[in-house]
UniProtKB/TrEMBL annotation:
Source organism (scientific name): Mesorhizobium caraganae
Gene3D superfamilies attached to this UniProt entry: 2.40.50.100, Nucleic acid-binding proteins, P-loop containing nucleotide triphosphate hydrolases
Similarity field: Belongs to the ABC transporter superfamily.
Protein name in the entry: ABC transporter ATP-binding protein
GO MF entries: ATP binding
Keyword presence, Kinase: no
Key words of the record: ATP-binding, Nucleotide-binding, Transport
Domain ABC transporter as annotated: residue spans: 4-234
Lineage top rank: taxon: Bacteria
Length: 346
């Protein structure tokens, strides 16, 4: 069993706090993705779990064992980092075999594992090449293969697909997902790519300024953002937010509509809806069309609503025109509300 517990982990670099009291339990065999914008602390958190960075505060547990005082090699983990340090003077085969030789595995087992992982990562034809002669994307796949060959209980990956072109990235993403699910490994995977996060994760921990804002399944973070930041970070285009003012009988007025909403002492809260969760009709949010972008299967319509930008994804045959006044009806079960001060969901 290789469950991981990150307990009250903080990291300060001089006067700068990169992580504030992060708590994150990760289940055995779970695929956890750390997602957030550049500088939010993802890599720092991963490096702390790996043992490459010491926390200023807090504990890290792996498989029921406290590991934050142990060196990396005693933590039972394999790592793939952004710079995918492969040894240029070794062949691809020897790079993948490296950790297995350190473990003194018999030659037949080494060969079997190297060939199998090379095949998984589509680099079997490169095994005899020197790693110094490979492209960035090929080196990256060697680094992933080397980690997988160790058959570790825990694998930590920092943007392992960042150097691949779009098509290969898509293919590798699916491969990795399959391989890691089959290998019963517990994975922590860092990315700033939300599509990659959604596709791979059992759970996504959304990070912002050194904190985990929400840790939940991809569907949950998409449908029920715990805070405004999550709704605005996840989704392309992101969630729309419109000010709502208190109306009679506990309802709220939003851009010309009166809607039932949460109980609150506040006079103003925020209404939120995703672009695909509105329909053009006879009743709805009052909107003026500004820009129309046909996307093939859908049309992205950017509107003015209450003086702010609002994006709607409509049917491609919606027939709207620039300057037209629209009524955009939000799907009732998809409406979310946020507290403008705490920014938390209501
Ligand atoms: P990216 O996606 O760009 O790699 P990240 O979310 O992984 O970003 P981190 O690398 O964890 O971010 O960095 C978090 C913050 O801590 C950043 O503001 C960074 O500048 C700072 N930081 C990281 N390492 C150090 C260090 N050794 N000394 C000082 N500040 C650091």
């Amino acid at each position: 069993m290789a469950e991981i517990a990150i307990k009250g982990v903080a990291k300060r670099f001089g006067g700068f706090t990169a992580l504030h009291q992060v708590d994150l339990p990760i289940a055995d065999q779970e695929f956890m993705v750390l997602l957030g914008a550049s500088g939010c602390g993802k890599t720092t958190l991963l490096r702390i779990v790996a043992g490459l960075e010491t926390p200023s505060q807090g504990e890290v547990w792996i498989g029921g064992r406290r590991v934050d005082h142990l060196p990396p090699r005693e933590r039972g983990i394999a790592m793939v980092f952004q710079n995918y340090a492969v040894f240029p003077h070794l062949t691809v085969f020897e790079n993948i075999a490296f950790g297995l030789r350190m473990k003194k595995l018999p030659q037949a087992d080494v060969e079997c594992r190297v060939n199998r992982t090379a095949e998984l990562m589509h680099i079997e034809q490169l095994l005899k090449r020197y790693s110094g002669q490979l492209s960035g994307g090929q080196r990256q796949r060697v680094a992933v293969a080397r980690a997988l060959a160790m058959e570790p209980d825990v694998i930590l990956m920092d943007e392992p697909l960042s150097n691949l072109d779009a098509l290969l990235r898509l293919e590798m993403r699916a491969e990795l997902k399959g391989v890691l699910a089959a290998s019963k490994t517990t994975t922590i995977y860092v990315t700033h790519d939300q599509v990659e996060a959604m596709s791979l994760a059992d759970r996504i921990a959304v990070m912002h300024q050194g904190r985990i804002v929400q840790a939940a399944s991809p569907v949950e973070v998409y449908r029920n953002p715990a805070a405004r930041f999550v709704g605005s970070f996840i989704g392309n285009p992101p969630m729309n937010f419109i000010p709502a003012t208190k109306a009679a009988n506990g309802s709220w007025s939003v851009a010309g509509l009166t809607l039932p909403g949460p109980k609150s002492d506040k006079q103003r809260i925020e209404f939120a809806i995703r672009p695909e969760d509105v329909d053009a009709g006879s009743e709805g949010l009052h909107a003026t069309v500004r820009v129309i972008e046909p996307l093939g299967p859908h049309t992205l319509v950017t509107c003015d609503v209450e003086g702010g930008l609002f994006r709607a994804i409509l049917e491609s045959n919606a027939g709207v025109k620039v300057g037209e006044q629209l009524r955009l009806a939000p799907k009732p079960d998809r409406i979310r509300w946020f507290d403008p001060e705490t920014t938390n969901a209501l």
